[in-house]
Write a structure and sequence with these properties.
This protein is an all-alpha fold. About 85% of the residues lie in helices and about 0% in strands. The protein is built from ten helices and no strands. Helix 4 runs antiparallel to helix 10, helix 5 (about 65-85) runs antiparallel to helix 10 and helix 6 packs parallel to helix 10 (about 145-165). The longest helix has 23 residues, at about 20-40. It is elongated, with a radius of gyration of 18 Å. It starts with a helix and ends with a helix.
Length: about 170
């Protein structure tokens, strides 16, 4: 009986920080809408496709913003594993998403991912380095394939932005 009460308390503690994950996922999901609003401010912003084809810097910025909803999806997917008792899965996802945001040079989302990593560490005691080491030995590429797709796309955006001098 005491063990069941302890499990309920632990589950309640994990859900206590849900609002921070919801805020992060909402901000990531709204990133493309903010990018479209930003594009509308430019002269000729009514025709977004023409604006994207004329200016490669705007195109790379727009593509970078489009990673937000996929990142939010990955966080939500990994968050489910936290509730199933696999905190290392979520922490490793957050580390790899942090790497992806660093490739995009997006300081705001890097701070958000750092804060979420801190919350997961505070709730579970699983450190980022220990989680990556643990996952490295246990289906690293299979479990984290979505993060690697994100990192590949962010690397492409970094390469394009460096080529055009951003």
């Amino acid at each position: 009986m005491a063990k069941k009460k302890e499990q309920i308390r632990i589950a309640a503690d994990l859900h206590a920080k849900d609002r921070w994950f919801a805020i992060a996922k909402t901000l990531l999901t709204l990133a493309p809408l903010v990018a479209v609003g930003y594009l509308r401010m430019f002269p000729g912003g009514g025709d977004i496709s023409a604006l994207l084809s004329e200016n490669p810097q705007i195109t790379v910025t727009f593509l970078s913003a489009m990673t937000g909803p996929f990142t939010a999806y990955l966080i939500g997917l990994a968050q489910k594993h936290l509730y199933e008792g696999d905190a290392a899965y979520l922490m490793t996802h957050l580390v790899l998403i942090f790497v992806a945001e660093a490739l995009l040079r997006n300081a705001v989302y890097m701070v958000i991912m750092t804060f979420l990593m801190y919350l997961v560490y505070q709730m579970t005691g699983v450190s980022p380095l220990a989680s990556v080491r643990g996952k490295w030995r246990n289906h690293f590429f299979r479990d984290l394939s979505g993060c690697f797709v994100l990192i590949f796309f962010c690397s492409f955006c970094l390469f394009a932005s460096l080529r055009i001098g951003m």
